[in-house]
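Quick review question:
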């Protein structure tokens, strides 16, 4: 019962997606002056429009950034559509317009852009600019997760863990949480750790691996990771603590945690 309660508590914490990072500028654009970029952008060059949006946003002019992103978005560039959608969330200095945000997330998502599919899924999950619908959230998370988008994999794993929009399935939860955890997504590391702690979803009960994954999440500032790590710590021997901390220290992104001994 105690382990199940930890999982339930985790499911009620809601991580927030970070602002999507624009792609690095192409080499030709990186050497162009702002005036040259503006000339190219006004001629319809979407790469220049995106670059000017980034420059304006970094300089603290979000409305100008939105104007440039919107020019590229109107030409069907999915990355620009995602950024327009994000700016309408109201966290970047542009007046919030949540239905407009969802509209642009959807335009990008329907072109198969995985990060936009994740944002659209999160909009459905939270009821941000659209009626809450966990089945739709899980549908969009799955589309992005199948493309290898780690944030979507983490959120799909959580959906299976809690049975939100999908049938509850701890085995599926473990599969998707593991994919995201090895890519460094802290909420997935916590979810996978809880399955190790409880011995659920085909994951063997292993408090050492539970602690190690929670330790990695906690190092990223994940509050649930800190809280649950300290709870598991009380049940480990000094030797187990040393082993778990060594696993955390030696972990590299893209790798699963594996114990040398059972």
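Suggested answer, residue by residue:
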């Amino acid at each position: 019962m105690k382990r199940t309660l930890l999982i339930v508590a985790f499911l009620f914490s809601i991580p927030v997606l970070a602002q999507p990072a624009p792609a690095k500028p192409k080499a030709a654009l990186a050497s162009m002056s702002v005036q040259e970029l503006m000339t190219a952008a006004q001629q319809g060059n979407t790469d220049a429009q995106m670059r000017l949006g980034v420059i304006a946003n970094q300089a603290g002019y979000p409305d100008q950034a939105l104007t440039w992103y919107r020019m590229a978005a109107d030409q069907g560039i999915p990355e620009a559509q995602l950024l327009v959608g994000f700016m309408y969330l109201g966290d970047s200095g542009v007046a919030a317009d949540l239905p407009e945000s969802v509209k642009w997330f959807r335009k990008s998502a329907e072109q198969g852009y995985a990060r936009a599919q994740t944002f659209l899924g999160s909009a459905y999950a939270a009821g941000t600019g659209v009626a809450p619908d966990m089945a739709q959230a899980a549908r969009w998370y799955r589309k992005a997760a199948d493309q290898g988008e780690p944030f979507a994999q983490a959120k799909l794993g959580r959906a299976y863990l809690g049975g939100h929009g999908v049938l509850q399935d701890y085995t599926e939860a473990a599969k998707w949480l593991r994919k995201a955890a090895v890519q460094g997504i802290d909420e997935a590391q916590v979810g996978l750790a809880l399955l190790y702690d409880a011995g659920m979803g085909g994951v063997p009960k292993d408090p050492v691996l539970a602690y190690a994954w929670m330790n990695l999440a906690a190092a990223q500032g994940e509050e649930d990771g800190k809280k649950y790590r300290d709870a598991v710590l009380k049940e480990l021997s000094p030797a187990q603590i040393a082993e778990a901390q060594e696993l955390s220290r030696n972990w590299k992104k893209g790798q699963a945690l594996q114990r040398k001994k059972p």
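Why it works: The chain has 15 helices and no strands. The mean pLDDT is 90.
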